[in-house]
Amino acid sequence: MKLKLLMLLIGGALLYLLATYSVLRFYPDDPAQMNWMDREAFNARFIGRLQPDASMRQELLISRLGSPDITEAFRNEQQIYQLLYYRTHRKAADGITTADECTALLFVDRQLVAVGEAAVVQYQAAKADVSGRS
What we know:
Radius of gyration: 21 Å
Largest sheet: 4 strands, antiparallel
Strand content: 15-25%
């Protein structure tokens, strides 16, 4: 009797682990299906792990996070600068997403080069350089 109960408990635990693994493996997080609080937390976690390097392409990031909340872009000679803002923290419950509620990601020719305030500073410096030459 005790052996049968033990086998049922072990079987149930294994079934639970298999179901959990299957859900996590085959149903990844989809920011488009999340409510705004979950999406902010997901964005903050994902962006917090990013390191600016040549391996993070813009297409990959958009496929994971979805469309950015705010976007700015310009061309500097042959390079395209794109500043993507993803909301990571809400400041006011006004239904409007502003840049100060977001984390900025700077892409140059679709490669991630900076995250956060450094991204904004680099973008503005490059844009000022282009404006200064005109």
